[in-house]
Amino acid sequence: MRLTKIVLYIILLLCVSSPAFSALTTEQREQMADSLWHVLHTSALTSKEQIDIYRLLSDCYGSYDTYRTISCLKKGLEIAEREEMIKYIPHFTRSLGVYYNMLMRYDTAKTYLDQSLACAIKMKDRREEVQAYRCIAHWYYRQNRYVETLNTCMEVLRLSEAIPDTSSQFNALSNIGSLYRELGNFDRAEYYLRKNLDLSKKYNLPEDRMAYYELGLIYMERGELDLALEYEIKANEWFKLSYKTFEIYCDQAIAKIYTLKREYTQAIEYAEESIRLAREFSDTRLETIGMQILSTIYREQKRYGECEAIAFKAWKNDSTMLDCGPELAYNLAYANLQLGNREKASVFFKRYAEFVREYNVKGFHQTMADMEIKYETEKKQAQIESLETEKRWYIVLSVAGLLMLLLAFGLLLSRHRLNVQKHRFAEQQIKQLEQEKQLVATLSVLEGENAERSRLSQDLHDGLGGMLSVIKLNLGNIQLPPTMSETDRNRFTNAMSMLDQFIVELRRVAHNMMPESLMRYGIKTSLEDFCRSIPEVNFQFFGENPRLDSRLEVLIYRCAYELINNAVKHASATRIDVQLTVDKKLISLTVRDDGTGFDPKTVHYGAGFINMRNRISVYNGKINIYSELDQGSEITIEIELK
């Protein structure tokens, strides 16, 4: 009898381990789970066999019943710890961390994930260590802690390349691409995702559907909606068969694309399906995001009552999420304004403004680029150490040859000199590669900051500016009662005047962060407009007026902005002359003022000036300072054009 049970257990083990298991329906998984429970309760099994069955049960329940999955994992972990079967502990603790992460019980999840990592390190099992880091990276990501997420993903990539573990390499590359996409650096995101797909072709493996999902999001952000929809549908077809959790992400992405295409019927269908699946998995975070998407669709359809209802329900779920909180606050403010609920609209408008301030992630680009440079530098350092080891061996062989073959001294000396020259050439090449890598990384940071300035400028102008304009319009339509006192009338008039001033100041700040004229007409027109806005500043332009590289134009504009502001704020200047000269080989910016001046040798330069000087050095530019106390100052920036 026991032999029959064991045979049944082995058959079930083979079924669950096969690739076809992922295609089973919920009903089929339930039937297989019942068979496993029958074996467990009617057979005299060893501890190892019991552990295997609890692992199989967690796989059966994993796609549709989170709480039963956790129960099976805990029972398997209890046996493994009691019997000191340490090799099973990393799997059970890691899996428990994953499912508690889905339930947003982050402290419990982190405890299990840390236990899994510590056990894997103790066992010196590099593959289990990689799996633990993968899950920890997702734990950070779920809480919008992007710096820690990227740091952990880089560790996954480093370890998986050393093992090697191609599956984990795919995962790390996809996650890094996803992070760059989240932060708006779409070129870097596409680079890592394409690297993922190239790796699958190199090893002749199936393409990573997560890369398809992320590329679809990138194309959606770029406005290529048909291409985005094609990628998301391909990814979704695969996720429906094998990974139901990520089907939720795909459904939400497709709903957003259909919303942008104004095909609202399909958008609602996918949004509601994502909410249904999220509730099935007890994933409150994804349920909240799905409801936010649905409220946006209702807002676009001007179904303000339904928009307010679903958005408020999502808000009660979780109002602190940075990835959907701002949109929920905006939907609630806008819907209540349209429904005439001005007090509620005001409350959510203030919350939206707070989210806008919290959403400034400009520092992340620098941090991520620094970590990427650190990762690449470690690889280069390994190459340098290898070359140095090789060089030492050549020297040892040369000395031995001199002792053994004194008559061949001349030949060996010549060979030694040739080797030294080769190594010097190799070291020069490595140094040049490191400099090029540093340049690329710095330019990537500049691109990220420029993109962030553009996004914040657009958010301030379109989001906050638009809402203030609506408030002004509604205030302007108020009919003041004749019985209102003169004092109250004056207060109302002053409030309207202050609102006008605030709108003007908001637009000025948004314009200075990333002037539209800079992107559209170039540095000459943009800088001329800026100088014209300040009475003390005179602008002169010499030479040609071609369009330069957009990053260089932004750099020149920010330098001029910094120098003019310094002259106005710190030098008490009454006249400032700005001169821009552009020809085919050189661009020169000179800012001259009649202010108090300073001693260049003793002055303490601020962070803004130091940051400006560092960025100029990226383009191999020069900055010359001429100044004396009470004699004004003249600062010239020169950058050669290639």
TrEMBL record:
Q: Does the keyword ATP-binding apply?
A: yes
Query: Which PROSITE patterns does the record cross-reference, listed alphabetically?
Result: HIS_KIN, TPR
Its GO CC terms are:
membrane
Q: Pfam families this protein is in?
A: HATPase_c (PF02518), HisKA_3 (PF07730), TPR_12 (PF13424), TPR_8 (PF13181)
In what residue span(s) does the Histidine kinase domain sit? Answer: 556-642
**Which Gene Ontology molecular-function terms are recorded?**
ATP binding; phosphorelay sensor kinase activity; protein dimerization activity
Membrane-spanning regions, if any? Answer: 393-414
Catalysed reactions, as listed in the record: ATP + protein L-histidine = ADP + protein N-phospho-L-histidine
Which positions carry the signal peptide feature in this UniProt record? 1-22
EC number, UniProt record: 2.7.13.3
Recite the UniProt keywords alphabetically.
ATP-binding, Coiled coil, Kinase, Membrane, Nucleotide-binding, Phosphoprotein, Signal, TPR repeat, Transferase, Transmembrane, Transmembrane helix, Two-component regulatory system
In its UniProt entry, what is this protein called? Answer: histidine kinase
From which source organism is this entry? Tannerella forsythia (Bacteroides forsythus)
